[in-house]
Design brief:
It contains three helices and eleven strands; from the N terminus they run E-E-H-H-E-E-E-H-E-E-E-E-E-E. With 214 residues, the protein is α+β, with helices and mostly antiparallel strands. It has a single domain, classed as Rieske [2Fe-2S] iron-sulphur domain (Rieske Iron-sulfur Protein).
Length: 214
């Protein structure tokens, strides 16, 4: 539902917010430049950590499953695991993040039900996950393979009005929500990919295998 100010009212919550739209080119270039510089520093710090506990190069080349302990992952935090040479994000979504995710009208998204890509059945629900709070996703943009940056905070001033939190690709400006679903009118054609995974315990996830679609 639209209001006279151009905002959108979510039918379930009644909250009024603006729909994210493509940015002004100059503003987008500024954000991209800033994210590229920051991303390089983060990547330099992250990879030594990954190498300290990732499986052997032979196992990674063979696509072996990877076990990750997320027991120390705090609310709203993200950890990165390498699987098949790709960064896999494990994000502990808070109740607030899930509430913000629910505010996004499906009509703003290219594929709100994740029907386009060949992904596990548990990637087709509203949170695209087995457990609503824990999000497991390949951290590679579906456009040209860049790695998006975190923009978790709703109302982030560097993002368009109506931003409810998610991810921003610094290479070409694609925007994704907190379930990795791509917004319309973006370069990326598909949602971020959810890999096969299963839980081995309450704090351990196995990436690269599941149990008949969980």
């Amino acid at each position: 539902m639209s209001t006279s100010s151009g905002a959108t009212t979510h039918p379930a919550s009644g909250a009024s917010f603006s729909t994210p739209s493509p940015m002004d080119p100059r503003r987008r270039n500024l954000i991209i430049g800033t994210c590229v510089a920051g991303g390089a520093a983060v990547a330099a710090a992250a990879w030594p950590f990954l190498d300290s506990w990732s499986p052997s190069e032979r196992a990674k080349a063979a696509g072996a499953p990877v076990e990750a302990d997320f027991g120390a992952l705090g609310p709203g935090q993200r950890m990165i695991v390498e699987w098949r040479g790709k960064p896999v994000w494990i994000i502990n979504r808070t109740k607030e993040m899930l509430a913000d995710l629910a505010k996004i009208p499906p009509g703003n998204l290219v594929d709100p039900d994740s029907k386009q890509a060949n992904q596990p059945p548990y990637a087709t629900n509203a949170t695209r996950s087995i457990k609503p709070g824990l999000f497991v996703v390949v951290g590679i943009c579906t456009h040209l393979g860049c790695s998006p940056t975190d923009k978790f905070t709703a109302g982030d001033p560097t993002m368009p009005a109506g931003w409810e939190g998610g991810f921003f690709c610094p290479c070409h400006g694609s925007m994704f929500d907190l379930a990795g679903r791509v917004y319309k009118n973006m370069p990326a054609p598909d949602n971020l990919i959810v890999p096969p995974y299963r839980f081995a315990s309450d704090t351990t996830v196995i990436i690269g295998e599941d149990t008949k679609g969980a």
